[in-house]
């Protein structure tokens, strides 16, 4: 008898659908195995259990006793076939799921209302954009990839059904319930994106359910609270509302949800909601459109599903209409009884109920429930929140942002050195992601206006804004309307508007939009939307999105302007083809260094193909663990200054054609004219082949020789030399400085600051160059690393440019680059709170060094020296390095000529691993190389004594930066080098390449 029923059911389905095919998931199933499992389960079910399979209840995923008892009652007494959870968190829901599945005699179908992924219902999960933003994404393959990822996450959670995609065409700007949930107003665009999302979901074996059939897009009411009406004729429905569903069905997807709508043209013989109307569910959906998958009602507890007659049960009507699954009945126990009674009275045909039960069991088999396994709780959160998920979230946001106005190409923002920029956030607090990201690109003054701001506070903000050259305004709420002061601001100043709201709301700011120079739609007020909007404004990402709906009187759907990226962007490693799992080895190496106290903290940055794909801060400023390192932390670059600062300035000077690499030193440094160094060539200084001594302790010339006995240094600790200075020496600390050369206050003639309360006589600079002139000279042409080379190269650059080194770098590079944290003598512009301390210098300066250069020679040069003195954080240093990698271009501006960059960065001496001011790999002698073993020969960069390095790889378009203060509290700590931390991190980067790096 049982097999006859199944045969009749399948035959009925065939007659209803005619030549239509089954959904793809059904077709892919092993029919023999499926029939065997369905037969055995169906045969074991009582009539009540067969009815129960049609019910899917909504419940809270709470594990408290009261809630669990309620859920267990549904399973044991109403024999439910499935469950849809309300909001919760992944671990709790998975725990509850496991308990219910353990209790259920037939495994339950677990559903998700995941229109934009798990985060629609579950906290602590990846927050994908809502559909209206996805409607602006042109790359449809991203929608499928997004669906695949949501499907993967569902499987991790033990979820089998996702109530998505939403195929409602939102053609009504006043729609109170669909809005951002729709892909837009173009039926073809909605169909294409919905089908792509469904394809991704079902590729993971998850059942997709399109909704809300026949189309909820053009309503003024919310079916949660009333029965919305759609009074269009059939021609209109066939052209707007139905095409996405036709496409979905023809593409072979598995589920459709019927909406609670009143559509007179589709239900001429009944006043019932479409979800309860046989003309719509059976006649239109199943017979005319040929849908043969699972048909779900929308939640039956919604007001839109209520019926006029108190004697008619909505669940009974839904089954009579042709639905298979009764979702969220208002009272499961009462409704279960009503269905039973309708069968007993003959209102419902038992064969129809059994046919639906069999169909549901078939899809349970398809969902893998014939081989049920509980959800693995351990590591669940990490398995859901993967780097790939983060990559897709970011990519979808970046691709969906829509630029609608860009007068005179105001975006991406250019000419930073000539602009004083402010950001105004309307309806968002201080430290919001939009303004935080803006400040990664330049120093942007930030202002906020909230709903609670007083008129006086608002007036004060607008008065301050009038002093800026460019205002980047973000609107984060629909609760603060446009006002006259704002309109006046947009008329008086260049303003770029960004809306993190439903696009329709933009019409409320129409006057200001017409005044503004630029306008961008971010669709929703999420962290990702804010972050990537800021990147688009500064050219970190391209502008690609196309408006998914019409903004009345402003912009039509499909509008959208394109821009190109011109600055560094911030993406996940996958965006640049790096394996995030392998790249995570960096974290392990850094943690190893922190445990060994090789350094108190550090910053590590990796940029590839113009995207920062790794940017992390670790540890603390000092070992007291009081101030954690953040990306704002500024480090002393030490000898990395040679390449980042001096060579960069020298290239600019070189382009003035006042010297060549063969020019003699004496032409630019008069103090060398009568010395044995007069004929040293610029090239020799850059290659470290000048013969100059490695270093000179200039500070000893400021010491009163009569203030101490014996020597200053000793290789052994003794009574006269009680304290270790570095790895090889102990020092005498009893000396005093000469009062004619050193002062503890700033006064006339003593303006060269060495450290806090430490000033030099201004004549000491001449003493330094006299000492250099008198210093011995080693064999010219032989490699000997020397800081003195770069002290002299500083003089060459300054002579040519007629300004100090710090001004050259600031005027021509760091200011226009927006790299304000890359500078000499940082305390002149940066609060000491953000500057990481280096050594507790008990010997030369007798203080903790914070904001004063660590290198003694640079300190006695006043903090601006060719060999050291530059400070930076990794983010701002990356801008300078990316300009070099781009062969002189950044932010749409040219800083150096391509020929100059190629000369300085590609040249290398045959005598060592040195280039023209840069360090390079030394494959012939890797033990002496400062570079990782896996880096190609084209790499150039430098290391710094304080524990820093940077490397630029033109072959792989790669930048690597490591900044630390390993000399804190003492330079005697050489663990950073002995543990090969910097080179191991560099090698870890190359190991993370998914493809082959160029070697």
The fraction of residues in strands falls at 5-15%
Structural class: alpha/beta
Radius of gyration: 35 Å
Low-confidence region ranges = 1-19
What does the average pLDDT come to? 95
Lateral arrangement of strands in the main beta sheet: 7-6-5-4-3-2-1-8
> What is the overall number of helices?
34
Number of strands: 35
From the N-terminal CA to the C-terminal CA, the straight-line distance is 72 Å
Kindly provide the name of the CATH class of the largest domain: Alpha Beta
Brief overview:
The chain is an alpha/beta fold and 999 residues long.
Report on the structure:
InterPro entries: Beta-lactam-related, Beta-lactam/transpept-like, GH, Glyco_hydro_3_C_sf, Glyco_hydro_3_N, Glyco_hydro_3_N_sf, NagZ_Beta-hexosaminidase. This protein has about 1000 residues and is of the alpha/beta class. The chain folds into 3 domains: about 1-385, Glycoside hydrolase, family 3, N-terminal domain (TIM Barrel, Alpha-Beta Barrel); about 400-565, 3-Layer(aba) Sandwich (Rossmann fold); about 585-695 and about 740-990, Beta-lactamase (3-Layer(aba) Sandwich). Helices cover about 35% and strands about 15% of the residues. The chain is built from 34 helices and 35 strands. Strands 7-6-5-4-3-2-1-8 form an 8-stranded parallel beta sheet. Strand 25 (about 750-755) and strand 26 form a beta hairpin. The protein is elongated and about 115 Å long. The N and C termini lie far apart (about 70 Å). The relative contact order is 0.07.
């Amino acid at each position: 008898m049982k097999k006859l029923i199944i045969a009749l059911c399948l035959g009925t389905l065939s007659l209803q659908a005619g030549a239509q095919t089954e959904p793809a998931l059904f077709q892919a199933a092993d029919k023999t195995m499926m029939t065997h499992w369905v037969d055995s389960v169906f045969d074991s079910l009582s009539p009540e259990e067969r009815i129960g399979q049609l019910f899917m209840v909504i419940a809270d995923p709470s594990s408290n006793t009261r809630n669990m008892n309620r859920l267990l009652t549904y399973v044991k007494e109403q024999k439910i076939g499935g469950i849809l959870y309300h909001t919760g968190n992944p671990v709790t829901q998975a725990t509850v799921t496991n308990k219910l599945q353990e209790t259920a005699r037939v495994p339950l179908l677990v559903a998700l209302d995941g229109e934009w992924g798990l985060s629609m219902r579950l906290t602590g999960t990846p927050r994908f954009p809502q559909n209206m933003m996805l409607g602006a994404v042109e790359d449809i393959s991203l929608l499928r990839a997004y669906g695949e990822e949501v499907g993967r996450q569902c499987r991790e959670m033990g979820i089998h059904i996702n109530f998505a995609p939403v195929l409602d065409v939102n053609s009504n700007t006043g729609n109170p319930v669909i809005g951002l949930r729709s892909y837009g107003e173009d039926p073809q665009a909605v169909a294409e994106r919905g089908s792509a999302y469904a394809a991704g979901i079902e590729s993971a074996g998850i059942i997709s359910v399109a909704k809300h059939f026949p189309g909820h897009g053009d309503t003024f009411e919310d079916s949660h609270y009333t029965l919305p009406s759609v009074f269009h004729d059939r021609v209109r429905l066939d052209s707007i509302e139905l095409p996405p569903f036709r496409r979905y069905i023809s593409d072979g997807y598995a589920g459709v949800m019927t909406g609670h709508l009143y559509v007179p043209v589709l239900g001429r013989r009944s006043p019932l909601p479409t979800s309860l109307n046989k003309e719509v569910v059976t006649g239109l959906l199943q017979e005319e459109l040929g849908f043969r998958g699972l048909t779900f009602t929308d939640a039956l507890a919604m007001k839109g599903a209520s019926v006029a007659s108190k004697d008619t049960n909505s669940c009974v009507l839904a089954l009579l209409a042709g639905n298979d699954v009764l979702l969220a009945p208002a009272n499961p126990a009462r409704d279960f009884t009503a269905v039973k009674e309708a069968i007993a009275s003959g209102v419902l045909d038992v064969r129809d109920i059994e046919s639906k039960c069999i169909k549901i069991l078939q899809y349970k088999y398809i969902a893998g429930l014939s081989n049920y396994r509980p959800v693995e709780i351990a590591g669940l959160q990490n398995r859901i929140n993967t780097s790939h998920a983060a990559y897709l979230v970011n990519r979808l946001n970046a691709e969906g942002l829509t630029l609608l106005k860009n007068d005179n190409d105001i975006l991406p923002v250019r000419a930073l050195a000539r602009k004083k920029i402010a950001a105004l956030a309307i309806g968002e607090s201080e430290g919001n992601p939009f303004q935080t990201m803006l400040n990664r690109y330049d120093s942007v003054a930030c202002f906020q206006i909230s709903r609670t701001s007083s008129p006086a506070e608002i007036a004060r903000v607008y008065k301050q804004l009038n002093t800026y050259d460019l205002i980047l305004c973000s609107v984060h709420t629909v609760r603060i309307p446009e006002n006259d002061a704002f309109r006046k601001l947009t008329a008086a100043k260049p303003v770029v508007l960004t809306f993190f709201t439903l696009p329709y709301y933009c019409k409320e700011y129409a006057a200001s939009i017409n005044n503004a120079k630029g306008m961008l739609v971010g669709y929703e007020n999420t962290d990702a939307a804010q972050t990537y909007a800021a990147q688009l404004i500064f050219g970190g990402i391209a502008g690609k999105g196309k408006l998914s709906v019409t903004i009345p009187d402003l912009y039509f759907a499909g509008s959208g302007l394109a821009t190109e990226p011109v600055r560094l962007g911030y993406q996940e490693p996958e965006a640049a083809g790096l394996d995030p799992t392998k790249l995570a080895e960096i974290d392990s190496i850094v943690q190893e260094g922190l445990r060994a106290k090789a350094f108190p903290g550090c910053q590590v940055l990796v940029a590839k193909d113009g995207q920062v794909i790794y940017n992390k801060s670790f540890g603390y400023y000092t070992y007291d663990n009081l101030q954690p390192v953040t990306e704002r932390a500024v480090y002393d670059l030490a000898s990395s200054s040679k390449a980042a600062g001096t060579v960069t300035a020298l290239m600019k000077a070189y382009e003035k054609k006042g010297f060549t690499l063969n020019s003699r030193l004496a032409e630019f440094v008069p103090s060398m004219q009568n010395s044995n160094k007069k004929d040293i060539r610029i090239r020799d200084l850059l290659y470290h082949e000048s013969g100059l001594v490695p270093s000179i302790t200039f500070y000893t010339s400021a010491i009163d020789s009569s203030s101490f006995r014996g020597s200053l240094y000793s290789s052994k600790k003794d009574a006269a030399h009680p304290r270790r200075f570095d790895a090889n020496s102990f020092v005498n600390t009893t000396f005093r400085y000469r009062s004619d050369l050193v002062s503890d206050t700033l006064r006339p003639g003593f303006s060269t600051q060495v450290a806090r309360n430490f000033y030099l006589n201004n004549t000491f600079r001449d003493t330094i160059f006299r000492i250099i002139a008198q210093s011995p000279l080693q064999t010219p042409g032989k490699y000997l690393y020397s800081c003195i080379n770069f002290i002299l190269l500083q003089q060459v650059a300054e002579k040519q440019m007629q300004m100090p080194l710090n001004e050259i770098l600031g005027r021509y590079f760091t200011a226009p680059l927006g790299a304000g944290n890359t500078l000499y003598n940082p305390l002149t512009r940066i609060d000491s709170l953000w500057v990481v301390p280096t050594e507790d210098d008990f010997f030369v300066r007798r203080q903790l060094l914070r904001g004063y250069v660590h290198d003694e020679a640079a300190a006695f040069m006043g903090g601006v020296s060719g060999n050291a003195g530059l400070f930076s954080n990794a983010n701002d240093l990356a801008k300078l390095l990316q300009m070099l990698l781009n062969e002189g271009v950044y932010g749409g501006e040219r800083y150096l000529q391509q020929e100059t960059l190629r000369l300085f960065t590609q040249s290398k001496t045959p005598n060592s691993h040195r280039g023209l001011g840069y360090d390079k790999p030394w494959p012939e002698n890797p033990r002496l190389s400062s570079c990782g073993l896996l880096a190609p020969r084209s790499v150039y960069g430098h290391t710094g004594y304080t524990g820093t390095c940077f490397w630029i790889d033109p072959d792989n378009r790669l930048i690597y930066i490591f900044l630390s203060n390993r000399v804190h509290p003492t330079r005697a700590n050489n663990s950073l080098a002995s543990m090969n931390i910097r080179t191991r991190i560099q090698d870890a980067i190359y190991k993370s390449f998914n493809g082959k790096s160029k070697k």
